[in-house]
What does this fold into?
Amino acid sequence: MARVLVVEDNPESLDLMVYLLKAFGHVALSARDGLEGIEAARLEHPDLILCDIQLPGADGVEVCHQLKKDPALRGIPLVATTSYAMVGDREKLLGEGFNGYMSKPITPQTFIDQMAPYLPTDKDKPLIDEIKFRKSKTKVA
Ligand code: MN
It folds into this structure.
């Protein structure tokens, strides 16, 4: 089980990601704007952060800069979640400091597999196998 912070202002996207994370046994933490996301990262120190780019308060790039300049937080994997319209910006986002990139809209069938490689490896390696096992046995509504 991993504790995953989702920073997303679109209610449908947020609900879907939270639903999928919980369905696969993770703890989902959520924030609806950039400042709330930075605060949640400081308070909760999650295992992974999935962060939208277009956000009120502080946009995803600003969230990234704030987290990556903080020695206590820069080690948390930070993955940008952006719409198809921004796919060309992948390299730019990685250059800003993001550890990875996932495109939206979220596809329920592949979301967990796409996210898995960004989970911290040591303690979660067995977990990833367990997720795949569970996924093969469990139908997600
Ligand atoms: Mn947004």
Summary: Residues 124-129 have pLDDT under 50 and may be disordered.
